[in-house]
Write a structure and sequence with these properties.
This protein has 668 residues and is an all-alpha fold. The protein is built from 39 helices and no strands. The radius of gyration is 31 Å and the shape is globular. The termini are far apart.
């Protein structure tokens, strides 16, 4: 009997191991099946697939198999596969391929039905959608009235596409032929296409189109080319023939292109030329010139030219927006014109005026103007929040930062419910197979349309998996902004500590850059090619690697250790150059050269104002986020958070919050 109990106990101990071995075996079979399919070992593929049973990723094999047959000209499995696996995001790729296959085969009726069933295909494949609708208008078993509507819709879509300068491929040549037979293009349509090409400097593409123009109109195009070569000189020689009512369309396009090009060189000259044209070209609507004035004024403002303040103030009220009002305030802040700061903020719509940014600068302006009571109240209100302006406000009044991380409260049953969603189980398996992108795709596809309560459960589940980038994103969707432990992970602690020791940067600084750059997605890749945790461009990585005398492994940018080492070294180099972490963060995001240019325009003797006046919205937010994140990460390390104001003033280690007195730190 005792032997029986021992045997049962041993079997119970072995159950988890057997289960683990089973899932590992399934994963191995899945990878083998995928490889067999890719190498056309179809019989072996089916043998392996049959072994998988209810393995979570088996649907992918069916989808890939249907896709492989489709590429060989056999579409018989596609429809049933799409129905069976509509909840699997990979089916979207199969549907796309099927539509392209139908178009290639001329199965326009099938293409039309597929687009009607999945309308998103029309925007992804506009030419196929047009052609399918065009054929439907000719052959479909529909009423004559519906055929007319279809045909008109196609002509309108084609005309719009043609005028925008988009390419016309052989696929839609039949539509083009029918469009021409209807008397197109007319003068307006032809000029639209010419303008779309000429404004980009694509003059070769205008050659054939210009043959239908009059001699005078071809002269206008020649003049336009001269404007692109020397906008200032050419605009001063505006031809009389472009001042007629009949020439409004080309004249407007030429003025717009010329003024924008000149404003890149010299906004003041562009403004002067624009005023002359505004006075002489009465045939062009005033709103056209107001739009250009706003564009030139904003360009000058982003170059910190104070004359832009006058230009912005002169704009009609209907042409003001969040951008124009914001730059009016920034220009006033740079020169410490506090009455102007208060006036512009006071004129903002309430939604903009109540943003933390402008509440903070209103308080700063009130304090600088001697209205300390109202300033203190404004700072006190802001200090209740958590972020860049909130932390600055707390320091103004020597108040503690609002840092706490309450536990996310959600029922375990709801977490379990999320965990049992097939798409979530597939995401888990893709993570186990180190396929981050497919895991993310499954995760978001499965959770689309969910409410905040379910996203809260998803946050807890992702946290249990250790999937930090999705924890951060799920917490945001769950509106769990106080969940600082989840939203600010301290992953890769060993690598971060080593990088901090090697570079002299703080661990909080490195974590903050990682948090802002990739949200801890080690496989992140930007649309411009930046890679990994600290989003390094390959060229930058090579440059830093050579400096560090690293070997061939230096370009493994999806390796956390490599990426953190290279990224931290690059950041430290910029910090050494500028002597300040805020400037280093700006350089990391926008490039050191741009930061040097901005410093020439606005000295860094008033750091808060300098950061506020960063020309790029993305970079300004980036710097503010990184500086605020450092406060959170210092708190997460169970340290007393250092002074954000001191960090802006490059005195990170020298000044603690205890040394900050009310109104001690103000703009100078």
């Amino acid at each position: 009997m005792r032997v029986l109990f021992i045997t049962i106990a041993l079997l119970l101990l072995w159950v988890p191991a057997l289960q683990a071995a089973s899932i590992e075996q399934q994963r191995d079979w899945f990878k083998q099946a995928r490889s067999a399919l890719n190498s056309d070992q179809i019989k072996h593929f089916h043998v392996l697939k049959d072994k998988l049973g209810d393995y979570a990723l088996t649907p992918y094999l069916d989808i890939w198999y249907a896709g492989k047959l489709l590429r060989k000209g056999d579409e018989h499995l596609v429809a049933d596969t799409l129905i069976a696996y509509a909840a699997v995001p990979e089916s979207i790729d199969l549907r796309n391929d099927w539509l392209k296959y139908m178009a290639k085969k001329g199965n326009w009726a099938g293409a039309h039905r597929l687009i009607e069933a999945s309308p998103a295909l029309a925007s992804k494949f506009p030419e196929i959608a047009m052609m399918a609708l065009w054929r439907a208008s000719q052959y479909a078993d529909i009423s004559s009235q519906q055929k007319v509507i279809f045909a008109q819709t196609v002509m309108e879509k084609f005309s719009s596409r043609w005028q925008q300068g988009k390419p016309i491929t052989a696929l839609i040549n039949p539509i083009y032929t029918a469009w021409v037979k209807q008397g197109h293009p007319n003068d307006m349509e032809r000029w639209s296409r010419i303008i779309s090409f000429a404004s980009k400097g694509h003059w070769q593409k205008t050659a054939a189109l210009s043959q239908s123009l009059s001699k005078q109109q071809r002269q206008w195009l020649k003049y336009w080319r001269s404007i692109q070569k020397n906008p200032e000189k050419a605009l001063q020689a505006w031809p009389e023939s472009l001042s007629s009512v009949e020439s409004v369309r080309p004249a407007s396009a030429i003025i717009s292109d010329g003024i924008k090009r000149l404003s890149r060189q010299d906004p003041a000259k562009a403004w002067s030329e624009l005023q002359g044209l505004k006075s002489s070209q009465k045939q062009i609507a005033p709103d056209f010139f107001s739009t250009l004035e706003r564009s030139v004024a904003l360009r000058a403002a982003r170059r910190h030219q104070q004359i832009a303040s006058k230009w912005l103030a002169a704009l009609p009220s209907s042409f003001h927006n969040e951008d124009t009002r914001g730059w009016q305030v920034r220009l006033a802040i740079i020169v410490q014109d506090w009455p102007q700061t208060l006036a512009v903020i006071g004129d903002m719509p309430i939604e903009q005026r109540q943003q933390d940014r402008w509440m903070y600068w209103k308080a700063q302006a009130m304090a600088a103007s001697g209205n300390l009571k109202d300033a203190d109240q404004q700072f006190r209100t802001l200090a209740e929040g958590r972020g860049y302006y909130n932390f600055l406000s707390a320091e103004k009044l020597a108040l503690p930062f609002k840092l706490a991380s309450p536990e996310i409260v959600v029922a375990d049953t709801l977490v379990a419910e999320i965990d049992q969603i097939p798409g979530i189980q597939r995401a888990s398996e893709w993570l186990a197979l180190n396929s981050q992108n497919k895991a993310i795709r499954e995760w978001h596809f499965a959770l689309r349309g969910f409410d905040t309560i379910h996203w809260k459960a998803a946050t807890v589940l992702a946290s249990r998996w250790g999937w930090q980038d999705q924890v951060i994103r799920a917490a945001f969707k769950a509106k769990e902004m106080d969940a600082l432990t989840e939203r600010f992970p301290m992953t890769y602690a060993k690598q971060v500590k080593q990088a901090a020791h090697a570079t002299g940067l703080s661990e909080a600084a490195i974590w903050s850059i990682i948090r802002q750059e990739s949200a801890f997605n080690a496989y992140a890749r930007s649309y411009v090619g930046a890679k990994g945790l600290m989003q390094l461009m390959p060229a930058t990585a090579r440059q830093v690697a050579r400096k560090l005398k690293m070997g061939k492994g230096a370009l493994k940018l999806f390796s956390p250790a490599t990426n953190i080492r290279l990224g931290s070294s690059y950041l430290a180099g910029i910090k050494e150059r500028f002597g300040n972490l805020a400037l280093a963060a700006a350089g990391y995001n926008a490039g050191p050269y741009r930061v040097s240019t901005w410093l020439e325009r606005v000295p860094f003797d008033a750091p808060e104002a300098w950061v506020e006046a960063i020309p790029f919205n993305e970079t300004r937010r980036y710097v503010q986020q990184v500086m605020a994140f450092m406060t959170v990460y210092e708190w997460r390390q169970q340290k007393e958070p250092s002074s954000l104001v001191a960090r802006l003033h490059a005195k990170v280690e020298e000044v603690s919050l205890n040394g900050i007195q009310v109104h001690d730190v103000e703009l100078r």
